[in-house]
Write a structure and sequence with these properties.
The structure holds two protein chains of two kinds. By secondary structure, chain A is mainly α. Helix content of chain A is 40%, strand content 1%. Chain B has four domains: 267 residues, Alpha-Beta Plaits (2-Layer Sandwich); 195 residues, Rossmann fold; 173 residues, Dimethylsulfoxide Reductase, domain 2, CATH 3.40.228.10; 135 residues, Beta Barrel (Barwin-like endoglucanases), CATH 2.40.40. Classes of the chains: A mainly alpha, B alpha/beta.
Chain lengths: 215, 1004
């Protein structure tokens, strides 16, 4: 009588054991990464009504962030510039550029520009730029090397876990307030000494309670 | 002192409906659907569809736009609110305000601390007026009959009319205005009279203080009004008066009254309030002694009082005049003795309903007692249009005689609220050209030939004189949303024939006031302050000191068997002008706790005589007019009195207010607009459900409110801490209560053993709150302030009946005493207690409600999955659940009223008081960036800031010098349901009454 289970079936328990442990692990890993903002949000790069190049304006021409985002130090929001700010230069520079037509159109008609928001937090999260700037968190820390971006791209997940990583240990991300808008600043070799100095000068106590950000 | 407290007659009589309310926080079974008609099968389809849609939508990131300015306004920083001073005119009153504006849209209104009429506080109506600005039912265009026209069309049309009227000196021209007190409007009105000398001017207010003005005119010989200084008064007598709620100056009065109460509780002299009234008013609820007396017997009461005060010139005061039918003479004796013992510190206030003779007599009594200039002062009514029913009556007869060609109605809604016997609608139809300026196409505007949309005060330039005469400036926060015009602009057009902006017209008025030199800098100072400093009017001293007693005795006559009908202004809607304001419609009435309705109010005994139950429908016959409406039994009403609340039953108010309630104006005549005999009630066999919140949030009848008397407090410092007996006989614990020793610890409780690891709250700020029940008058300003600050939705009458109202802060009202007599009332505002060991936190399966390091019990909306365990476990019943997506259908314009600093909650999410965490955070961030410490008083919660009585203190408990820490050190401090060991951060200060030892027990 032929055997019911051929010999190769002897491997079944091992295969089953490996698969049984691997598949859930892979599934968890899959969800962990692909459902997370690391995958869904990072890299978001919408086309803007005007292909404004931060690489040109910041990287090459050396404009300071605050020339356009003027309220970043005093308000919760870092404003987008009014059309007038663009026209300060562009009524002289590149005044006939086709790409700038919407800006000129806005300036003459009085209809505002409609930019696409890149860095977006949920409506129940209340972020404040002014506190982060005052605490010495550089623009780069959250927004990436904007001076190298042709089109603004989200480079960090802006998820709650990511926020909390820094709120629980802000030291490594702090820099002198004078360097906040410096895109090229990198921490000195003895960054721990700097962190300690900054902490002495202006100790920060970022909230980790829910009410710190959710209202 | 042991009392039994009860929330409603149902509880007093232990009826089953109270038990239902007790056992179920949300009364209806299960989360039923908003609208009827969705069957289960359809529901499954919908669920399936929305799931698949949600699946798709979840994969896509929502695209959000950022729309910056084209040209940035100077000084406007996105994300930083700005604050402007302005003024809310209200009849002849004016409230100075500070309005918060986010990116150009006003969102929150607060009182202006520098203004004499608001003193930094506000009222429910002031708070809710911001919703009126964004009301989507406001009219949006000029209308000629039904056709849409423009303002310039009207200007042209007016030019033709003006030419015709100029020919005959304006003989056919009539203006009907609301009463006002405004330098600019007064200037324009006098210029109008100069230009059209034969024109008619009528001023009408449905809720009018005409009688008081007439009485004061006879007492002083001039047009004067009065200003009460309750803070200076030791003995206050309110005769059919409600200075603490329906009076336009309720903020000023409440602040003064509360100051006198607080002073007593902290060792100084405490004022004593006597109330004599037929309808239970808020003032009556605060009274130490309350006498139920029909309104028509107030005049004889004043005569009896005057006789007892034994004033030298009291006239022929014989003994016969010293009695009031049905009143124990000893009551009046004791009152008179108290007033005489407090000469110069007493105050008699009489209600607007009472006839002029009573007002004159009371003015004389106050003067004779030396109170004038101390507790009450008089000032000229300058720049004012004084209300007069007779001016409206003569206007109507002029129209009926065909003498009026053009009628200009400057605001107001006379078709709705004019006396019914004048039949204003019929008269208006006879005028060839009628022009109505109004906020909406309402009852009046829809009948006018021309309708002009009226600008809201937050869109207007104008000015107004506040109580005492201080000139305040009305400054717009926003351009008119719907192209409205102000009465200043319409009058300006009528006077000058030119279309001029209100700004120019107002500045023209102010040039002589401020002087030409450096006008602009003085003007800017006025705009900054919101008022002209030092513009209060001098006091007028009345000459009359002898009341004409003989004139007062006549009122007692009248047939027996009939009921006395009393017309009340609505505390929320006033005369109906706020009917389309959802916040005010859903605001529980302070006394009845009713929302969305205005039943006739009767006493339990009257109801028994007539065989009525609450929510029965009745037909009320009075002066050959009749009105069908529901009835509500309010303990403490005088027997034989039926009270009708005005302002409801609007037909063309808008989507909120149309058809809500019953129109009491349809039975109110011009002869007796206040009260009258001769009403009859017949029961109609049809119940009418009413939505009252009085049984909502019952806390199992445990001892909740605590009160004491001044004498007890003096003899035994912790007397206020004796817990009163619970309402439920079986729940009340007969354990012996002793005055406490240490604060907040009751001897009957053994030291608590907590199952939880103790939290340590020893770092940073530790927020806490106290609510002084002794100061709180239950006026509801806090509820509306909270609603405005925290984007709290309106749910509607049906959902309120189901116990689903969303107010984060409710004001519980407890009766104690005999319901057939005059039961006493205690009000208790109940927000979230922010327990240190919070029962809600321990049962949340998803940690959506947790504690933060500063002692706040935080609600995390984005974690909440809506199990409602927390609400079930909350002993204070302060959690509110979004059974529906109440904000989903919010019209776009109303979204502009939302506070951008507070999340708008979705369906299925629990919410509750947050201690205004957004305000705490803003202050902390501002202080940090300015390199300062957060000082006591920097953080004010919305309820605290609005409270006219300053009953709420909020601050850092770790700072021993903070006001809240000092309040918690008061011997009257107690925690609600302290025996549960929840360690609430919000505590209460017990109420203290100050009864006259000569009057034992509450008067019936």
């Amino acid at each position: 009588m032929a055997q019911i289970f051929p010999p190769q079936w002897n491997k079944l328990p091992i295969v089953a054991a490996i698969a049984g442990s691997l598949v859930p692990a892979l599934a968890i890993a899959f969800v962990w990464y692909f459902f997370s903002p690391w995958y869904t949000d990072v890299g978001y790069r919408p086309d803007q009504p005007v292909p404004y190049s931060h690489k040109l304006h910041v990287g090459e021409l050396g404009l300071d962030c605050r020339y356009c985002h003027a309220s970043v130090e005093i308000s919760n929001v870092a404003n987008l510039p009014p059309t007038q700010t663009c026209m300060n230069c562009h009524q002289v520079v590149k005044r006939d550029s086709v790409k700038l037509a919407p800006i000129r159109e806005s300036a003459t008609s009085g209809r505002p520009m409609r930019w696409i928001r890149v860095h977006e937090l949920p409506d129940y999260a209340y972020f404040t730029h002014r506190m982060h700037v005052a605490g010495g968190i550089g623009c780069v820390t959250c927004h990436g090397r904007v001076d190298e971006m042709e089109t603004v791209t989200q480079t960090t997940p802006l998820s709650m876990g990511w926020c909390l990583d820094c709120h629980r240990n802000p030291g490594p991300n702090r820099r002198p307030v004078s360097e906040v808008t410096n895109m090229k600043w990198s921490p000195p070799r003895d960054f721990q000494t700097l962190a300690a100095a900054l902490d002495r000068e202006r100790p920060v106590n970022p909230p980790t309670d829910c009410s710190g950000c959710h209202r | 002192m042991s009392r039994t407290y009860w929330r409603s007659l149902a509880q007093f009589e232990d009826r089953p409906e109270f038990h239902t309310a007790l056992e179920r926080e949300f009364l209806e079974e299960g989360p039923s659907e908003l609208a009827p008609g969705v069957t289960r099968r359809e529901m499954m389809t919908l669920v399936g569809a929305s799931l698949s849609l949600a699946g798709l939508a979840g994969c896509r990131r929502p695209v959000e736009e950022i729309v910056p300015y084209v040209t940035a306004p100077e000084d406007m920083i996105p994300g930083i609110p700005r604050y402007y001073a302005t003024t809310m005119p209200f009849g002849r009153s004016a409230y100075g305000l500070i309005v918060e504006s986010h990116e150009g849209r006003p969102t929150k209104i607060e009182g202006n601390p520098g203004h004499p009429a608001s003193l930094g506080a506000s009222s429910a109506r002031i708070q809710a007026s911001v919703l009126g600005l964004y009301d989507p039912d406001r009219s949006q265009t000029v209308r000629l009959k039904e056709a849409t026209k423009s303002w310039s069309d009207f200007v042209t049309a007016w030019g033709v009319l003006a030419e015709a009227h100029a020919a005959d000196g304006g003989a056919g021209l009539a203006v009907l205005s609301e009463s006002f007190s405004s330098p600019t409007l007064a200037r324009l009105a006098s210029e109008l009279r100069a230009r059209y000398p034969k024109a008619t001017w009528a001023t009408y207010e449905a809720v009018s203080d005409e009688n008081r003005l007439a009485g004061l005119r006879s007492a002083t010989g001039r047009d004067v009004d009065l200003m009460l200084r309750l803070d200076q008064a030791s003995v206050i007598v309110a005769l059919d008066a409600d200075p603490l709620l329906t009076d336009p100056e309720m903020i000023l009065h409440t602040r003064g009254f509360a100051a006198g109460r607080r002073a007593g509780a902290s060792g100084g002299a405490m004022n004593r309030l006597y109330a004599v009234e037929g309808v239970y008013s808020l003032t009556g609820a605060m009274a130490d002694h309350r006498l139920r007396l029909e309104s028509r017997l107030i005049a004889p009461f004043v005569a009896a009082l005057a006789t007892r005060l034994a004033l030298p010139a009291a006239g022929a005061a014989n003994v016969a005049g010293a009695d009031v039918p049905g009143v124990d003479p000893r009551w009046i004796d004791a009152l008179a003795k108290d007033l005489l013992a407090n000469r110069g510190k007493g105050l008699i206030v009489v209600g607007e309903r009472q006839p002029a003779a009573v007002h004159a007599a009371v003015c004389a009594l106050n003067t004779a007692l030396g109170n004038t200039g101390k507790t009450v002062s008089y000032f000229e009514t300058k720049d004012a249009a004084l209300p007069s029913v007779s001016s409206l009556a003569s206007l109507v007869s002029a129209i009926q005689a065909g003498a009026v060609q053009t009628l200009v109605i400057l605001g107001g809604n006379p078709v709705f609220d004019a006396p019914v016997d004048l039949d204003f609608a019929a008269a208006m139809a006879k005028v060839p050209h009628s022009i109505a300026l109004g906020h909406a196409v309402d009852e009046t505007s829809s009948r006018a030939e021309w309708h002009i949309p009226r600008a809201h005060y937050l869109e207007s330039w104008g000015d107004a004189r506040a109580v005492g005469g201080t000139i305040s400036v009305v400054q717009p926060l926003i351009l008119p949303l719907f192209g409205g015009r102000t009465s200043v602009e319409v009058l300006g057009l009528m006077v000058g024939g030119k279309d001029r902006p209100g700004y120019d017209i107002v500045r023209d008025t102010w040039k002589p006031i401020l002087g030409e030199g450096e006008f602009d800098s003085k003007w800017n100072r006025v705009l900054h302050d919101g008022l002209l400093a030092g513009s209060a009017l001098p006091e007028v001293v009345p000459t009359l000191t002898a009341p004409a007693v003989a004139e007062l005795s006549g009122g007692a006559a009248g047939g027996s068997g009939d009921l006395e009908v009393v017309f009340l202004p609505s505390p929320a809607l006033h005369d109906g002008r706020f009917a389309n304001d959802g916040w005010l419609q859903e605001l529980p009435d302070p006394l009845t706790k009713l929302t969305w309705d205005n039943p006739a109010l009767v006493s339990p005994k009257t109801a028994e005589t007539l065989g009525l139950e609450s929510e029965d429908s009745i037909r009320l016959d009075y002066a050959s007019r009749s009105l069908e409406l529901p009835v509500w039994i309010l303990p403490g009403m005088a027997d034989g009195v039926v009270a009708l609340t005005l302002g409801y039953g609007r037909l063309r108010a808008g989507r909120i207010g149309s058809g809500v309630g019953f129109d009491a104006f349809t039975v109110r005549g011009s002869k007796a607009p206040g009260f009258d005999r001769g009403a009859k009630i017949t029961r109609v066999a049809r119940p009418y459900p009413l939505s009252a919140t009085q049984n909502h949030g019952s806390m199992e009848g445990r001892p909740l409110v605590r009160e004491s008397t001044l004498a007890e407090l003096r003899s035994q410092p912790a007397a206020g801490q004796e817990p009163a007996e619970g309402a439920h006989a079986e729940d009340s614990k007969p354990a012996p209560k002793k005055g406490g020793g240490a604060l907040g610890v009751f001897p009957e409780h053994t030291p608590h053993f907590s199952l939880w690891n103790p939290h340590t709250y020893d770092r940073g700020h530790q927020w806490g709150m106290t609510i002084d029940l002794n100061a709180c008058t239950g006026c509801n300003a806090c509820i509306t302030a909270c609603q405005s600050e925290n984007n709290i939705p309106v749910v509607g009458k049906v959902q309120v009946k189901n116990g689903r109202e969303m107010h984060w802060l409710r004001v519980d009202r407890y009766f104690s005493g005999d319901p057939s007599g005059s039961p006493e009332i205690v009000f208790q505002p109940v927000p979230c207690m922010h327990c240190e060991d919070a029962p809600c936190e321990q049962v949340c399966p998803v940690a959506a409600t947790v504690h933060d390091g500063e002692g706040l019990n935080v609600m995390v909306y984005n974690r909440c999955i809506g199990t409602r365990y927390c609400s079930n476990n909350c002993p204070y019943k302060v959690r509110r659940f979004n059974f529906f997506n109440f904000t989903k259908d919010t019209p776009d314009s109303l979204k502009l009223a939302m506070n951008p600093d507070v999340t708008v909650r979705a369906r299925g999410v629990m919410e509750k008081c947050t201690y205004c965490t957004q305000r705490i955070n803003r202050v902390k961030i501002d202080a940090r960036l300015a390199g300062k410490e957060v000082r006591d008083g920097d953080v004010k919660t919305a309820c605290q800031q609005a409270c006219p009585a300053s009953a709420i203190e909020f601050g850092d408990l770790r700072d021993p010098s903070s006001r809240v820490a000092k309040a918690k050190a008061d011997s009257r401090n107690y925690a609600l349901l302290e025996e549960l060991n929840t360690k609430p951060r919000t505590t209460y200060l017990a109420k203290v009454r100050n009864p006259n030892p000569e009057l034992e027990g509450p008067a019936a």
